Amino acid sequence: MAGVAPDALLHSFITKTLRVTTNDTRMFVGELKCTDRDANLILARTHEYRLPKVGLEDVVKARGKVDLTSRYLGLVVVMGGDICRIEVEEVGGGDGMEV
Amino acid sequence: MANNSGGFNDAFARLHVSEKPIEARQQISTTISSPSPATFRDVTQLFRQACQGLDVGQLVKDPNFTLFEAVGALEIMDPKMDSGLLKPGEDDTPSEIYQPVLPEEIIGIMDQLLSSEMSWHDGAALSQTVFTCLYIDNLLSLNPSSLEEAKFNLPLSESHQPGSPTYQLIHVVLRAYCVGLIKCCERVNLQILAEHTYEEEDFVTQTYNVSLLDFVTVAEINRLLVSAIEYVDSAAAPWPNNIKMALKARLAFRKLFLTELSRDVKEMVDKRSNWDGCITLLSTIGITRNLGTSVPSVFSIAVQRKLASTVPPRPIVQIPFEEAFTIVSRLCKDAKEILRVLAYSGATNLMTFFLRFTARKPQPSTYVRSLLQTLFFSNHIALGRMQISHILLEDVKELCLPADDLFDPRNELSEMPSDTRYQIHQRMKWFVERAGNSYITLYRTICQNRSRLRRNLCHLIVDWDALQIECEEIDGELQQLIKEEPVLHNDNISYAFSLSSWVYHYKLRQMEWIIFLGFELEVYLPHEFAGMYWYLQYFLRTRLQHLERIRHFVHPGVAVDSPLAATRSKECIASAQDVANAQATVNFTLLEAAALQELCSAMIFLYTALSRLGLVKTPPQPYSTDVMRYELRMKPFLSIGCPDVVPFEDFKNLVDNPDIETMEMLEMASENTKEGRKNFDLLSKMSAASSHALLCEEGYRLNLREYLRSCIGAGVAIVMLSKAIKTNTVADVEVEIDQGSYHPWFPVPRISSKKRPPLPAVPPTGR
């Protein structure tokens, strides 16, 4: 990362799909729209993922898929202080669709 | 055009909600099957360090993204915004649903569900009502794709062994009820989405991407309900008869209710509706209400954590059972009542029904108002079997009775552009299309909530004003085509101008409604009352003059000398009955307008007198002036060609009447109330047929009684005030404006002495 201007690096993340994990173990997958010095993030088209602690196996067995743990939230703000992990999607970066 | 109040964010959300789930499902399954997904790279350190390099206040953002949009973003971890946030100490694990063992508890849950459902009908979101029920959630959360899959997924326990009555209670009886209820919600949502209503304001149609069993047919669900009823009835169900009756009534109601909610217009036209069945079963539900034991633990706000929602969390709404019972009973009665419009008996009758039905307090539910719109006009068919042009032209004929030649069916057969008949037909066709649209919109607008009605009328009158001008032109052309004989009216030679007369009359009525609704919706402050009644009186006087003019042109013998007389077809010739009917309509409308005008005049004098005596005060207006307020009130009318808006100075003089003594003013007001009362008495003696209230006689008579109450109330206020002036005790007088006990368009000041207890309200009249 040496030599890369901070805002240029951050700009490279804009419109990329990020997976943000918050301190309460939820994950938010959405497209980065805006960030600032405190790493507050604005994510568009965000889905929330919550991993249930029990009953998951039963559900997978019963239905073969786990769709009840994800839900659509749309545009969200996540405060930098609440974030414990930021990941960026590697392939392609987003689904290529513009809003 | 419907449901657009959510703005871009909502539209955007909905757009993506519909396409995301599959993708989301795939994402989650990869996440779970492979604990360390290769597709995401951890950049936490990198990102945070890069952020540190930014200046305070510096933003890195997508150039297409504006901070204005960011205002609509949900803030994660904010308890007011984040519906997924767990309270401190709260566990994420879904607690086990309490499984009732007693049939009383099932009755209780069913009644709680009814309360939730009616709270939804009453304007709360599904996420606050039906969806908060853990059983509904359990049934829907696994995304069932068939009726077989739409079942509860509950752990087995000793008290709930398959086949046991306690098991059947939940998995047969409660399941059938829940499935029926979900389907009812689906039908209601479909109906409301089909017509114009205001999202969030009237109703929330959002389903959070949960399918409301739209793939299951009503017949399948009815079978399920029937088999549940059969189970309850059978010897296998070991409960006392009253419990069985209570359960059966609830299941049967669900079945009938669902059937009624699923009817199409054709079935309703064929008189296959059975709302009475629902009403009968409801009474059984009411009687057996006390058998139920409520189980509050099966409702939980935590369900909202799972719903795809772009809006902040909202609290649970569950109105008390009694209230829900009233709402559902009223819904059934209203839905039955609106079927009356299918028995079409003239356009004026139809309009009276719409006006009276929607003015009812409390207003009929959104569902019923939406259904009324569908009954009135859907798939280009009016009232399930008619052309809208038929109703429109009847409306014109009932009031103005234009020349017979305009309606001759032979006109339509002519294909020669130079032929008079052809030319008449072209113009009438234009009228039907142009006015037809405005006419349909007017009916639909009347079905909106009262505030929207007022607001939309402000837009409609602009359209009707334009329509009036266009029709005047067409009237002019038509009168030449049929060689209309001019008639002497008010010392002027004049023509009938039937079409534009009709339009003008409707426009004036709408202008009156705008101000009347201002009173009903308590838009005006007491010190404005006199001025606003002055405007009403001004519009009504204009309409009275206009009606006099219409009456002058409605008489037998019009257009006898037309060039088309020789070839005229017999069926288009207005019969003596038609002429008499039109005259009767005009006379009735004149009487009604005159009665209202007298009452308005009385109100002007009464409220002006109160202002003079300092009993109605102008509140301090630090940021406003009377002129500005006047401009605001007149805004809807400024662009209207006729009647004009009066300049403020003139208006002030006309309302304040500085030349008239207060006592004299009160005497005039008293005369007005007497005249008004006489007119309203005459109106109440008329038959429903001649009042054009065949479809809603009860509501019509109630409305007349309320007018009379206001008349009498105003009369009492005038007497009290005159007495106070004569005895010089104005200083001891107290005034309270009563919006509730009188006609909503005519709030009456209640005048009492400060020292004595307030006078009792005026007793009901009109018996």
UniProtKB/TrEMBL annotation, chain A:
<dbReference type="GO" id="GO:0031417">
    <property type="term" value="C:NatC complex"/>
</dbReference>
<dbReference type="InterPro" id="IPR001163">
    <property type="entry name" value="Sm_dom_euk/arc"/>
</dbReference>
<dbReference type="InterPro" id="IPR010920">
    <property type="entry name" value="LSM_dom_sf"/>
</dbReference>
<feature type="domain" description="Sm">
    <location>
        <begin position="8"/>
        <end position="88"/>
    </location>
</feature>
<protein>
    <recommendedName>
        <fullName>Sm domain-containing protein</fullName>
    </recommendedName>
</protein>
<dbReference type="Pfam" id="PF01423">
    <property type="entry name" value="LSM"/>
</dbReference>
<dbReference type="InterPro" id="IPR050914">
    <property type="entry name" value="snRNP_SmB/NAA38-like"/>
</dbReference>
<dbReference type="InterPro" id="IPR034110">
    <property type="entry name" value="LSMD1_Sm"/>
</dbReference>
Automatic annotation (TrEMBL), chain B:
<dbReference type="InterPro" id="IPR057983">
    <property type="entry name" value="NAA35-like_N"/>
</dbReference>
<dbReference type="Pfam" id="PF25789">
    <property type="entry name" value="TPR_NAA35"/>
</dbReference>
<feature type="domain" description="NAA35-like N-terminal">
    <location>
        <begin position="57"/>
        <end position="222"/>
    </location>
</feature>
<dbReference type="InterPro" id="IPR057982">
    <property type="entry name" value="TPR_NAA35"/>
</dbReference>
<dbReference type="Pfam" id="PF04112">
    <property type="entry name" value="Mak10"/>
</dbReference>
<dbReference type="InterPro" id="IPR007244">
    <property type="entry name" value="Naa35_N"/>
</dbReference>
<feature type="domain" description="NAA35-like TPR repeats">
    <location>
        <begin position="338"/>
        <end position="748"/>
    </location>
</feature>
<dbReference type="GO" id="GO:0031417">
    <property type="term" value="C:NatC complex"/>
</dbReference>
<keyword id="KW-0963">Cytoplasm</keyword>
<protein>
    <recommendedName>
        <fullName>MAK10</fullName>
    </recommendedName>
</protein>
<comment type="similarity">
    <text>Belongs to the MAK10 family.</text>
</comment>
